[in-house]
């Protein structure tokens, strides 16, 4: 079995990261959550006041500051999870809030943000044996990935899953707000000028609207076995 690069792209909140994390653990691959990187940049911009109350972004200020944003992934043995670090601080929980979710798509449309993140992703993933989840992994970051999966599900199904996840963490959220955010992120991600979300021509589609987590994992293990065959 050869070690390969796995690109898992698709719509927001369709379980990509859960699947990617589980597969990485099972096959002993490195997992890279590229959405977390755009979220960390967004949190940084919010903290610095680069995102105004009306949602507009001070792009010049963020661009001048972009090289001061250091993002890393560190395994927390106590919590048994991989955590996103922003300039030496774990921001794993903070980057998942609705506030960050509401601002992340416009940040991810900025060319200078994308090129900084893509450079970092290529560096992190240059050795084989990696699984990256995102929007442009199979189309832009690693167009030669041996396995490309495009994951999708109906927006209502995705919103319900996200709602359950957030309320499960004790957060107070409104289902309609979550659905609106899912739809809005789909729209921005798919229509932006630079690296829009689209299925790579050689990607296989996984629509998990009516699949259990175990059914998805069985599907993914099968796809991996075929792609990594010598
Ligand atoms: O997967 P996620 O919801 O954590 O991603 C957060 C945002 O980052 C999402 O709105 C799209 C953007 N993103 C991107 O543009 N390119 C990627 N490779 C990953 C995420």
Describe the protein's architecture and organization.
This protein is α/β, with parallel strands linked by helices. It has nine helices and eight strands. It has helices spanning 16-27, 34-47, 59-65, 98-108, 111-124, 137-141, 155-168, 175-191, 213-227, and strands spanning 5-10, 30-33, 71-76, 81-86, 89-90, 130-134, 147-152, 204-207. A five-stranded parallel β-sheet has the order 2-6-1-7-8. It has a three-stranded antiparallel β-sheet with strand order 3-4-5, covered by helices on one side. α2 (34-47) crosses α5 (111-124), α4 packs parallel to α8 (175-191) and α7 (155-168) crosses α8 (175-191). The longest helix is centred in the C-terminal third of the chain and has 17 residues, at 175-191. It is globular, with a radius of gyration of 17 Å. Bound molecules: 2'-deoxycytidine-5'-monophosphate. Residues 12, 34-35, 38-39, 104-105, 108, 134-136, 185, 189 line the site of 2'-deoxycytidine-5'-monophosphate. 2'-deoxycytidine-5'-monophosphate is lined by residues 12, 34-35, 38-39, 104-105, 108, 134-136, 185, 189.
Biggest sheet descriptor? 5 strands, parallel
- Percent of residues in beta strands? 15-25%
- Biggest sheet: strand arrangement: 2-6-1-7-8
Number of strands: 8
Report Rg. 17 Å
The shape, in one word, is globular
Average pLDDT metric: 95
The poorly predicted ranges are none
Considering DSSP H and I runs of 4 or more, what fraction of the residues is helical?
Answer: 40-55%
Kindly, what is the distance between the CA atoms of the first and last residues, rounded to a whole number of angstroms?
5 Å
Bound molecules: 2'-deoxycytidine-5'-monophosphate
């Amino acid at each position: 079995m050869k070690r390969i690069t796995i690109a898992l792209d698709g719509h927001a909140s369709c379980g990509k990261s859960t699947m990617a994390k589980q597969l990485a653990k099972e096959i002993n691959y490195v997992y890279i959550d590229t959405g977390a990187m755009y979220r960390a940049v967004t949190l940084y911009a919010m903290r610095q006041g680069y995102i105004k109350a009306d949602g507009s972004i001070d792009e010049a200020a963020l661009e001048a500051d972009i090289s001061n944003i250091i993002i890393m992934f560190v395994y927390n043995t106590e919590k048994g999870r991989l955590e996103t670090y922003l300039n030496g601080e774990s921001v794993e929980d903070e980057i998942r809030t609705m506030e960050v979710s509401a601002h992340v798509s416009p940040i991810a449309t900025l060319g200078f943000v994308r090129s900084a993140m893509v450079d970092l992703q290529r560096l992190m993933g240059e050795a084989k044996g990696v699984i990256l989840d995102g929007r442009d992994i199979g189309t832009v970051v690693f167009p030669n990935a041996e396995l490309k999966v495009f994951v999708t599900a109906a927006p209502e199904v995705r919103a319900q899953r996200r709602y359950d996840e957030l309320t499960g963490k004790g957060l107070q959220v409104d289902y309609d707000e979550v659905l609106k955010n899912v739809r809005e992120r789909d729209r921005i991600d798919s229509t932006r000028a630079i690296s829009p979300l689209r299925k790579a021509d050689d990607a296989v589609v996984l629509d998990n609207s009516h699949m259990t987590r175990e059914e998805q994992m069985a599907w993914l293990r099968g796809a991996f076995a075929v792609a990594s065959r010598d």
